[in-house]
Amino acid sequence: MREAAPVGFSLAIHALSILLLAWVTIGRPIEPRLTRPIEVELIDQQMLEDSFEIPPEVAITPLAVAEQKVQDDAVAPAPPDGFTSADELFANRILSDPKNSQVKEMLPQLETTERLTQLCNLEGLEQLHLARPDELPDSISPAAFEPTSLGDMTLKADGAAFRAARKWYRFRFQCTVRRDFGAVEAYRYSIGQPIPESDWDAHDLIAEDEDE
Predict the structure, then answer these.
(1) Residues in Cβ contact with 83 at an 8 Å cutoff, skipping those fewer than 6 apart
(2) Full-prediction pTM beyond 0.85?
(3) DSSP 125-172
(4) Alpha carbon distance 106, 101 (integer Å)
């Protein structure tokens, strides 16, 4: 039987959830451009164990995330593997903003794989905001279609999905973070086709959150 999480940790998770919700609703931290609303979903530890394939030799330590720079000229052709590499990283800049200091203080209290996942989701949403500015992407499900894997501080999600304008799309990404969780070092992603609504329930994909 799994032991109950310490009360202090549970309170920390609850407090972080409230802070993240408030941030999603109000905060626009990136300067000079306005930050778009983003959602960071806290993941249950058992769900993480079920969805992650983590090699036993991997020692997880802190994370960072990535960002893509908008080109004024023609868009560069996609690499052979179909991934787009981010030219700039956003997550650390978002968390470094004084407006988000409480969120930044709470993240280290999370279990390391959950912390890594939250930071990768944060970065991924910013990258999607650049790629789909008119659709306002607001949620990423890293293991919607198949388990993620983690090795050498790189989170790989080949069966992910993201939500935009209440529709879900297939998504793949690779997120590499620094070992002290101080910054994301690289982020690569590939946007796929829309997911039929008939498949949503089977993969725990919802059209909107309860508070919307």
Answers:
(1) 172, 174, 188, 189, 190
(2) no
(3) HHHHHHHSTTT-EEEEETTSSS-EEEETTEEEEEEEEEEETTEEEEEE
(4) 9
Give the Cα separation of 176 and 62 in Å (integer): 11
What's the rounded Cα separation, in Å, for the pair 71 and 50?
39
Output 107 or 139, whichever has higher pLDDT: 139
C-alpha separations of 43 from 80, 84, 89, 161, 179 in Å: 33, 26, 23, 15, 21
| Secondary structure letter of residue 65 according to DSSP | B
- 58 is written with which tokens? 């991997």
Q: What average pLDDT does the chain have?
A: 74
Count of CB atoms situated within 10 Å of the CB of 137: 26
CA distances to 114, 133, 165, 182 from 39, in Å? 15, 16, 14, 21
Instruction: Give the burial string for 8-22 (b: 16+ CB within 10 Å, else e).
Output: eeeebbeebeebbee
Structure letter (DSSP) for residue 175? E
Give me the amino acid identity at 68: Q
Mean pLDDT across 125-151: 94
CA 125 to chain centre: 6
Beta bridge partners of 189: 84, 173
Element (H or E) spanning 15, and its range?
helix 7-26
The H-or-E segment that residue 173 falls in is strand 167-177
Would you list the domain boundaries of the chain? 7-203
